[in-house]
Structure formats: structure tokens, C-alpha cells
Amino acid sequence: MMKNTKVICEKCNGVVESGEDLVTTTLFLPVVAYHEDCFVDHLKGSRGFILSGVPINGLYSNITTILCVILAIISLVFFESMAILFFASLIPIAYRLYSYFIYERPLKNLDNH
Prior knowledge:
Keywords: Membrane, Transmembrane, Transmembrane helix
Strand content: 5-15%
Radius of gyration: 16 Å
Transmembrane segments: 59-78, 84-103
Number of strands: 4
Number of helices: 3
Distance between the termini: 12 Å
């Protein structure tokens, strides 16, 4: 049985109750969670460099992750001399997986019960 993990909003410190209200993004380097409304409010007052402004759990990031997986496979198979391309493509994949397992998956388990 999985322990009851709460996802806490970075802005208001409230508990994010559902996956529909969850937005994850990077705050400089770490991945943080927001309520959807708190994320929009924080973006309005952000400086731009620290908060990426692009949700990790959004459609754009999902497409980017798929493209990075394809790029990683292609660069691993065909471009031995360009190993940096392989490792660079792992960064968005790692962020997406981290966001899923740390924030989204616990909320999906709560939504299903």
C-alpha cells in the first residue's frame, strides 16, 4: 500500500487535491508544484529567469519529451562521436519522469480511490 503523499503548492503552501489542478515547473533547477491558479499568479510576478514558465506536465513538455527520447535513441545508435547530444537529450526526459513520479502519480492514485 502506498503512503499518503501530499503535493504542496510552492506559492500558497496549500495541498493540491487533484491532478487537474496540478502544474509542475522548474524553479531555477528543482521541480516544484503549483495549483493552476497559483502558477498563473506567480508567472505574472516572476522575473522570468528563475521560473521557466513552461509546465513540465503540459502538452508542450510531453511532446518535447517524446522528441528527446527519439533523439536520444538516434544519437546513441548512429552518432557515437556526438555523445553530448545523447546526454543533453536526457535532461528533459529526466525532468518529465521526476515530475511524474514525485507529483503526478501520487495524485492519480488519490483520484482513483
